[in-house]
Amino acid sequence: MTGKKEKWLKDGHEADANLNNRRLVAGKRKFDTIAVHGIYNMEEALKQNNASLMEPVYMSPAQTFTDSDEKELSLAYEIPGWIYSRFGNPSVYYLEETIALLEGYQAGCETSSLVTGSGMSAIFMAVEPLLIKDKSFPYPNIVAQAKIYGGTFHLFSERLMQDRGIEVRWIKDAMDISEWESKIDDKTRFLYGEFPSNPAVQIFDISEIADLAHKHGIPLLVDATCASPAITRPIQHGADIVIQSVSKVMSSSGTTIIGSLTSRKDIPSRVGEDEMKSDFAKYVQHITYRDFGPAIHPLGAIMTLNDLRSLRGRISQMSDSAMKIACFLNDNDKVEKVYYPGLIEYIHYETALKYMRLVDSDEPAFGYMLAFDIVEKNRGESINTRKFYDSLNLVWRTADLGRVKTIATLPAISTHQQQGEEARDMADILPSCVRLSAGLEHPDDIIEDLEQALKKI
Ligand SMILES: Cc1ncc(COP(=O)(O)O)c(C=O)c1O
Asked: Which atom of ligand 1 sits closest to the CA of residue 120?
């Protein structure tokens, strides 16, 4: 090895050690402080970024290198570098480091994150390396909660099962550990759940299911988009990989579509190289993400980071509003049933209390999303539901959630239309179901709008 290469390697190791140190320092702070500062500090600003208070937007596609040795070592991932924006980008990396710290907050383990072009691509990036061909484990299957976001249902049932022959074994009652246990065998690659699920607001006992997965040497993947790390951090409870559609409540303004996957170090898996198991998110960044290409724009990363700084305050206000709205709907005779983990009537209220608390406080917080069924003459109808929905004035009729504006959608004809009636039946999604995502308005105004629309039935 040339003296120059040795020097690059030495500098690279120093840069890695410096980064680890910044992670350690930042990781000791409280949740809000991490959300505001991440790992960006004054020293870095003064040395590298023209003393800029805010993280700069590097709208550049590629890095230039001092010499061929530095380039060769960077492209071999032997020294840190961002190379090309499909591999990494310094602005995107500020967002990744912040998310890693927030998802790993109080988990007692190291975490790494990768952000991708959408929540769906984060899910795809998370499952792809666990589904590789392996002669010792042919005919893979996966075990997943049936009540999940329609796009994920479609990805699993169409792209994985129909197109690639990967069997998907659906769990109807995610709280029933024996159902999960009965569906796992020696070909199962991973377990997958949503906490809480969209739109049914179904939950499961994360630590029980994580223990079950680990007993079989496989990872538990959890999509926690509808909770966010300000309420539930699945890694703290034993999950191995967490997915977020970051453009939902983590950013709320939704100016950019972004997803994230965050992993703990040393995940269990029956397949894959040791390098993949030791740092899953970084492995995916180096290989899967680079090859499939779901990169994000650096401006979007910094706009999202700016939103993320106020996550805890927003989720607290949204949860309070959602609770008030849920109580109002629960007392209204045009509403058949309300699904919200904060209601005492909620079927698994005790489990919700165990996992859903506002970070850095003891207060329960049940999130921004709730669902309810409108009273219909016959099951399967949506006559009253559509009348109510079409009468909303302030609440937006939009297939979206986690926004600063309150939004309602009818999952059967929107987010869960594509999966078809049979699959909707399996997931208990009726045409009379309304999903509501509470925003930051005063809840009295939202309740007034819901009330006038219910009166139109
Ligand atoms: C729970 C959940 N996961 C994943 C996704 C997909 O995220 P994206 O729309 O960013 O691809 C959504 C979208 O609504 C969602 O609700």
From this structure: 11
